[in-house]
UniProtKB/TrEMBL annotation:
Organism classification: Bacteria, Bacillati, Bacillota, Bacilli, Bacillales
NCBIfam families: GABAtrnsam, PRK06918.1
Keyword set, alphabetical order: Aminotransferase, Pyridoxal phosphate, Transferase
Gene giving rise to this polypeptide: gabT
Pfam families in UniProt: Aminotran_3
EC number(s) given by UniProt: 2.6.1.19, 2.6.1.22
Name recorded for this polypeptide: 4-aminobutyrate aminotransferase
A GO BP entry: gamma-aminobutyric acid metabolic process
Length: 452
């Protein structure tokens, strides 16, 4: 197949990458995982060029961080300007306007007509940790509820809230107390004898039972939910389920926290994924694509909730850095000017159309699903048993990398291919990337047949 964008000369890693890998092996622990075995040299839009002259179409976007693409000119210009002014006076020492301006803009685009305030941090996990702190302070309760297959970070509290044991939790305990896991629907893996409606009834019933058998609702400060489970395998809940959770929160005075760290800023076709479910969260955590690769995060919340904490109780040394603020402000302008919310919706339609064609061709595809451009394929060994096929998933990723496409796995079983391409990707790049993905799938399936 003729490639216009993707280009890989020979095998991976190349000669320069091999030398860097040797250095990495001496200086960096293996506990830090890596995808494709090479090193970036330059990136723009949806393309990454490595040190050996190879070019990759990026369907990963730094795990959902690059919605406006790599090195968008408006982002780099904003950073250059900010660096020339000041780098970090420390907001808790001397304040700066970009922090205020970003807080104003995030409050304005967040769902709901109520008054809102915004506090900024560094990472997604920090945002979730602080959202929980704020919720506990406001409600005077200690319990936190997250969901089966959810992912919220790697710090002690957020690791506890996360479901997947390996690689995130194994032998890292003991974990934080007062964290409870509620049931979450996984429609593809519902019992064959059960209709979607019956399954939904059952899960909602289990939710009600959860607040009887597992924890008393009056002891819960907050429920934390992703609008689409990211690491969990891009599992999209029904509107009815999300609203049932929200109603349970409203009934018992529990704060509803929307973890929008991976789903936010155009990925699902809206600024925030929860907008699809017609609810208004009490608190929203944001990070990743908010700043096009700069480390910054935030919590957006109802003013009366955010105001409960006293001066000095929230914050951190680098929280809301000027560089992160400058990048985030540029990102919000880009999303509006380039209509990236609409682009996210359109990309999802294109990708899901190709996924449907692939599902007709390959019995190894058990399910396709997504919301906006947050799209995924679940791979199985048998469509009837739905046994996960992690091995095939890894083979597809390897074959895609060899052809110049970056893709990523997800899911509790590691058998889900998820796509998080920059929303600024061109139609030609999308088409070429999907062609490579199909070619990689064909090669991987053929290898499994030969090795069977």
């Amino acid at each position: 197949m003729t490639r216009k964008f993707a280009k890989v000369n020979g095998s991976l890693p190349g000669e320069k990458a091999k030398k860097l890998l040797e250095r990495r092996g001496q200086a960096v622990p293996k506990g830090v995982s890596n995808g494709v075995p090479t090193f970036a040299e330059k990136a723009e839009g949806a393309l990454i060029h490595d040190v050996d002259g190879n070019t990759f179409i990026d369907f990963v976007g730094a795990i959902g961080t690059m919605n406006v693409g790599h090195c968008h000119p408006k982002v780099t210009a904003a950073l250059h300007k900010q660096v020339d002014q000041y780098i970090h006076p420390g907001f808790n020492v001397m304040m700066y306007e970009p922090y205020i301006e970003l807080a104003e803009k995030l409050a304005a685009i967040a769902p709901g007509e109520h008054e809102k305030e915004v506090i900024l941090f560094n990472s997604g996990a920090e945002a979730v940790e602080n959202a929980v702190k704020i919720a506990r302070k406001y409600t005077k309760r200690s319990g936190v509820v997250s969901f089966s297959r959810g992912y919220h970070g790697r710090t002690l509290l957020t690791m506890t809230m996360t479901s997947k044991v390996k690689p995130y939790k194994f032998e890292f305990g003991p974990f934080a107390p007062e964290v409870y896991k509620a049931p979450y629907p996984y429609n593809y893996r519902r019992p064959d004898s059960t209709t979607e409606e019956q399954y939904e009834d059952f899960i909602i019933g289990q939710l009600h039972e959860f607040f009887v058998n597992d924890v008393a609702p009056e002891s819960i400060a907050a429920v934390v939910m992703e609008p689409v489970q990211g690491e969990g395998g891009f599992i999209v809940p029904s509107k009815r389920f999300v609203q049932a959770v929200y109603e349970e929160c409203q009934k018992h005075g529990i704060l509803f926290i929307a973890d929008e760290i991976q789903a936010g800023f155009g990925r699902t076709g809206r600024y925030f994924g929860m907008e699809h479910f017609d609810i208004v969260p009490d608190l929203i955590t944001v990070s990743k694509s908010m700043a096009a690769g700069l480390p910054i995060s935030g919590v957006i919340g109802r003013k009366e909730i955010m105001e409960v904490s006293a001066p000095g109780e929230l914050g951190g040394t680098y929280s809301g850095s000027p560089l992160g603020c400058a990048a985030a402000l540029a990102v919000l302008d880009i999303i509006e000017e380039e209509k990236l919310n609409e682009r996210g919706e359109k990309l999802g339609q294109v990708v899901m159309s190709r996924f449907r064609q692939l599902a007709e061709k390959y019995d190894e595809i058990g399910d396709i699903r997504g919301l906006g451009s947050m799209c995924a394929i679940e791979l199985v060994k048998d469509r009837k048993t739905k046994e996960p096929n992690k091995e095939l998933t890894n083979l597809i990723i390897t074959e895609a990398n060899k052809r110049g496409l970056l893709v990523l796995s997800a899911g509790a079983y590691g058998n889900v291919l998820r796509l998080l391409m920059p929303l600024v990707i061109t139609d030609e790049q999308v088409a070429e990337g999907l062609d490579i993905l199909e070619e990689a799938m064909e090669a991987a399936v053929s290898q499994q047949v030969v090795n069977a």
